[in-house]
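anyone seen this seq b4? input:
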Amino acid sequence: MKRLLLGMLGLLLAGSVSAGGLLAVRARVEGSMVVTGTIGVTPQGTVLGYTLDQSEKLPPVVVEVIGKTVPGWTFQPVLQDGKPVAAKAKMNLRLVARPLGEGKYQVAVRSAYFGDEEAAAKEMVVTRTKPRYPREAIQERVSGTAYAILRIDRAGHVADAFARQVNMRVLADDKELERMRKLFAEATVKALQQWIFVPAEPADRKPYRIVQVPVSYEVSEAGHLPFREVYGQWQSYVPGPTEPAPWFDRDMMLTGGDALPGDGVYGPSSLSLLTPLDNG
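predicted toks r here
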């Protein structure tokens, strides 16, 4: 089965495929970028204001879309001692450029994550097993990113691990993409199940903690290196379906797993977005 590796300008693949194949490429491939910044929320849950990091590096259309989208969001009010208070959080947004045909694209916010460095630091990993790049994926030069969700017990052991989504950087038919996503999901879960985190604090009586871990797989001549997005530049990818973990507690809402920037460990989103995102 013929595949095409997607480069940084995969939206412009017209010269690499036949006329018939071009339609299939444009139907699958999306441009994607993660934009970071900060957001402030009023006690009522409306947006007080926001800033974007390195806005000068962002395409004007991205700044425009964010400017039309974010101010209209509504969040669940943040409570302190039972009373709603103003809040501020780091903001990570994944924007996508969806092909509409005839060389036109629709830009929209696909997913969002809100968190702070202090919360992330509490999810320190004591023992970390590096996921093994599936041999078959290396041989076929397939790249992608798996977004996993973990349930950690009070002792710091991973009680459950689940790959919620796998985005691919290769173009193939649905059967092939599903096979490769499964390889990356299995490799990710197998490794993360062996991780050990710092134990829960005595004051925290919850039986489990929930964290998210994105894992990048990127083929290179020397083997593989984590894929790094270039800030402000579109990257090509084929988004995978999002599946909720069977044990996922929806009261501990996590917003948009694939908005997480690069490899790392992230706790639950510190702000709960009530406005639906168009995941189309």
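Residues 1-23 have pLDDT under 50 and may be disordered. The helical segments are 19-28, 60-69, 117-121, 135-139, 174-192. kinda curious what u guys think
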